[in-house]
Amino acid sequence: MQKSNSPRVILSGIVFSALAACGGGDSTTPTPSVPVAPPAPTYTVGGAITGLKSGGMILASGVDKLSVAPAATSFVLPTALTAGTAYNVVIADQPPRFTQVCALANGSGTIGNANVTNIGVSCSDQVAVVSTLAGTNNPTKLPTGLPEPVFDHPQGLTLDDAGNVFVADQNNARIAMVTPAGVVTTFVGRTPGEAPSDADLVLGKIEDITRDKDGNFYAVGQHMVFKITRAGVITTLAGAPSIGYADGTGTQARFNTPLGIKVDDVGNLYVADTLNLRIRKITPAGVVTTIAGSGVRGSVDGAALQASFANPIGIAVDHAGNVFVSESNLIRKLTPAGTVSTFAGSGSDVGEDGQGLKASFNHPYGLAIDAASNLYVAEQGGTVRTISPSGYVATVAGKNRVAGRVDTDGVGSVATFSTPHGIAVDAAGNLYIGDRMGGRVRKIVQR
User: Fold this and answer.
1) At 75, which CATH number?
2) 32 with 56: CB under 8 angstroms?
3) Each residue of 385-419: pLDDT tens digit?
4) In 127, 176, 233, 263, which residue has its Cα 20 to 30 A from 166's Cα atom?
5) For 152-187, how does the pLDDT look when each residue is reduced to its tens digit (9 = 90+)?
6) Whether 83 and 142 share a structural domain
7) CA–CA–CA angle 323, 327, 331 (5° rounding)
């Protein structure tokens, strides 16, 4: 007798029918979509600019920044804001000193339901007035019996808190002091009519000079670094008369023709060790270390001791500890973190103004920096330049590549320089120039 399979078939059909009634085993009910709210409308912040000629101005609101192009007539900050957001536009960087100064109106408010267009920036011209503070137009040695106001190859210079200028009067083997009224006396070294002495071996080769907050002076020359007290006592802080390269303490260290020196806020010295192609640091105790430069000639950026320099000459240090160096038609920057970069200059010697690497220099020599981090450059090519904190380069005074240059006082490019070497800036922002071949100390004020 055969068995029937019918009940099993019937059961399968029942199960299939039940699943079909439920929509199938693999079906899912669609989730209702949630409507996406449209983004809130945003509005720009901007306004009008009048009178701007120079570059270098930076506008900012919070972290939002805008570098304004020369001759711009309007601006719009990069970031758009939603309604109800506060803004506060300020001039973060002015155009370079001695060129223009700008003012801002209606800079703060709250975003409404329209673009902000009523902020106003107005700029007015500033000029550099060049005068002779001391000296004649001919480099002159003191033993001829001439009065003290003459100089023979004035080099580096620095200032004290009273505004007196101290000048490395190189070929006269002295450091001279010039009062704000232009009265010249010998601070240390040879006086008028005095015969050469052993002091000439030191003071006759001084290249640059700086002063610390305690009133001590420091000078570089003859492969050594000297300390000069306010009383005029000279001692060797570091180095020896022989050429070499070595880190160490005091006379154990060696230099090769250092040409630039500056002091920071805590008394550390920074030296442009020119023919060693390195930047050196000296503590107040006389401990010398190399902080930048591989010793290979070049202008390669990078980590401090792998970077290269091509005859570093002038040096300056700002309040943040950044070190600036002039060399081979470039201005280099060494950060406290130990990174070397090219701050300004294309490498050509045309002497053009412009932003950062688009600018060019004609043999930059001495450097100085003010409290607002404006950098000043004395160029052997016959000009004085300024560099804003953002890196915009502008000419303060003088003319580039003028044949047969003499020292002519005047305004801006009307003024001329023979061979600007040393440069210093006082608390009011006035500049002082050691005009080497002209035998003068020049003063530049902004008007």
Assistant:
1) 2.60.40
2) no
3) 999 999 999 999 999 877 666 789 999 999 999 99
4) 127
5) 889 999 999 999 999 999 888 889 999 999 999 999
6) no
7) 50
